[in-house]
Sequence to fold (236 residues):
Amino acid sequence: MVKTLYVVGIGPGDPELITMKAAGIIRNADKVFCLRAEPAGSSLAGNIVRMALGDLPDLQELVYPLSRDSAELEKAWAGILRKMADSLPPSGTGAVPTLGDPSLYSTGVYIQSAAGCIADLKVVFVPGVTSPSAAAAAARLILASGESPCSIVPAPGDPSELYAYLNFPGVLVVMKIGRRYKPLAAFLRENGWSRYCHLVVRAGTEEENVFPGLPEMERADMAILFINCRERLDKE
Fold:
């Protein structure tokens, strides 16, 4: 009997941005699995779900690995999914709340990849409000319109690699910034991009901050950087 695991997007952090569909799936699941990266502390996704839906009796927190070793990640995620599947009753359903949308820089990517190893488990993605959407709303920015496109990229390890994207004729959205912020911001300042940038930190949470330009900070966790490449290209 096949079990179903729903990977549920719950938005960027504001409990009120959880969709009705997401809330219904989480409430009705036989088991809710909340993931966290560190053994200590609690799951951020789990905390958001509790704020929105109250305490859920069948909620279990699991630790996922932080590694760049693909073989190690594959083995670890296969073990996590096997544990989830074994926790569910025959033909049962599980829910994994994930920040933002499961298809965009999410743990859902690892879950979907590992699911192929487990014959009795079907993985279904449930869309959520993405962090770029919430950040753009906070900064009052238009991501795309008419013939002006939008592109989403991860922050590069070498800031100069961003050159490949800066001729993009629209809004460039940079995610996964973290500790890469300081050298990235320095590179953009040196090349005259500050006035075309907005940084939004922790969009959709009580700690949300919107910065025009590129503020001085060591790192930018849970941050989205918008670069209006189209505006600069139009002026050159």
In short: Helices lie at 20-28, 44-53, 70-87, 108-115, 131-139, 181-190, 229-235. The radius of gyration is 19 Å. The longest helix spans residues 70-87. The chain is about 30% helix and 25% strand.
